[in-house]
User: Fold these one by one.
Assistant:
Number 1:
Amino acid sequence: MTESTFWSEIAAKARAEHRPFFTMAPMEAVSNTVFRQVVAKAAAPDAFFTEFVYAKGITNSNTKFPVHGRLYVAPAEAQRPVVQLWGNEAADFVTAAAALKEKGFEAVDINMGCPDGTVIKNHGGSDLIRNPQWAIDVIAAAKTAGLAVSVKTRLGYSKLAEFRDWIPTLLRQNVDVLTVHLRTKQEMSKVGAHFEVIDELIQLRDEIAPDTLLQINGDIPDYQAGLALAKQHPGLDGIMIGRGVFASPFAFETTPQSHSLAELLDLLRYQLELFDDFATRYDVPRFPSLKRFFKIYARPELGATDLRNAMMDAKSTAEVRQILNESPDTN
């Protein structure tokens, strides 16, 4: 274990409230400072993760995967996010962890589950499942700065049964948190999450690394579903929600409530403000990337299909605001 108390404090608070801890998953072009603030305003989890950050890029700006604004944390954010790193070179994780500690971050997570072809081609994400020595080496390297170190992975690369060798390999590295997305790399998100293996994962953790916190991810839409799953599987420490925030930005709400179209669109206006502010700091945000979020707010079941279609045709945040201001459904 590292000397950091980041995860132990989060877990202790959750246990005192008789619940698992909840986190929002690291998602490329999604979990940046802008959307983290939006989710926090709606209903905050216990911890956030950043977008994927190429470990080498933190100290080498000439890589083909530059950091840009991925490490920016807005003053309004109550807690610095966990930085999710990817790569396979131990030396890069040594320098990255040291630099992140200097910047005030307390925790890093190592991406060993991303199924994206570009990431795998560059020996990151799920490729580490096929190369366990790389995984062992980068974990050890990340620990050298004294930060909390966690790992997010999948059950295997091509076959479900691989988890019986792969997960113990990771557990023997004594990371602070092990997050398991309950699918293989080959399955992508085309099949349902393998909830049937949760108890076996807990047993492996208990036998090999009882101090490692175990978190699961995959097909968990909201806080209530996470609570129910943890109740069914005693010993589970954490619940990570990813795509659930696209079904509702209020996914981490502890008491379910219905939310009006006006309330959702107020969140969208907030995101537009944050997006524009971020664009003045980093020449990174591109308006087209914002369009993926419109479906979160302008929902068909609330009669907002035409509104969403109109926003999808917009070319700027100013146009989206004009559409919102002129629509009779938003006032």
Number 2:
Amino acid sequence: MSVKIYEGEDLDALIERAKEELGDVEILYYEVEKIPGIIPFLKKRRYRLFVTKKEKREEKEREVEKLEEELKEVKELLLTLKENVSKLPSQQPVPIPSVPEHLEDKAPCSIPQIDEFTGDAVELINILVKKGVEPDIAVELVKVSCGLDIEAEKLDLNTNTFKEALINAFEEKLSFTGELKVEKGNQRIFAFVGPTGVGKTTNLFKLASKFVIEQELKVGVISTDTFKVGGTQQARIYASILNVPFYVATDQKKLKEIVENLKDLDVILIDTVGRSHYDYFRLGEIKATLSILGTSIEYVLLISCNYDTKEAIEVVNRYRSFFPVDFLLFTKIDESSKPGVMVNVGVKSGLPLSYVSTGQRVPEDIKLLTPTVIADILLGG
């Protein structure tokens, strides 16, 4: 909101002047200062008038109304899901849009030890590399399900399908959280951290909906993000739809006070401000704020599938230097043609994989990561 200040000795004249310059205005408040004159008991009045254009305020209200209208459909869907949760599909493959052939990366890639393999094993390695899995990791994954082809004296798959081979590999090489289960009365606190723009707020509420609908838990949300324009308003609307309490913690003391007042809840989800993994000072601020809660927090690091592997690993390493990251949540898989970054980061970091965001819709566009799901994503199933 843009505020303009007018000063003078005639309040009515100041108001008229503001209207002439700005049009329709809203008077926020005014200050009066008494200035001594020649005669001691007669003092002049000097006014300071604070105004803003009404159209700006109304425009903001219209934006909020528009957002509320857009989220009406989400509310209706949420109610429908709550009534039919038992009918929801559990293990359907995640649909991944195919990449047009002319956009696929056809640059030759050097694959180490490729000469050790033959037949289907070579084909599967090439599929993985094309999907963004690093060549050396692709080789190690495929090797899990290989045996010696005596005739060729090379390694080939000993499974009936590529999918079966990948499931075996992911079970051995990757770690998974499984569905996040919370026992009623045994409170868990999750803090969502990650760079700007990875989708922390949206995916926090996707998980909140799973706790509320599928496990019928008492959930509360706390935001420490007071920087993102409109972020708090969006979070309040989501919280209202889910009928969960929502709070804003502006500092360490306020955060501790809120958490202590929410001891009767099963789950507390903390949304943090997005910060670049190169901004050590700001990451230190987030750490200082959350440190008041000690070791009771479980840290969820969000990684965008739009990152290349080198940058994603950099994000993980730098965030781990500030926070004891418990597991990873991947976002924007629907915007990436190289979903293999999930496998690369999972193998290199050793951190458990939890969920993947498959779109913008709340609450449905989130999928539990399992060996089968990742295999479907990489094979385009």
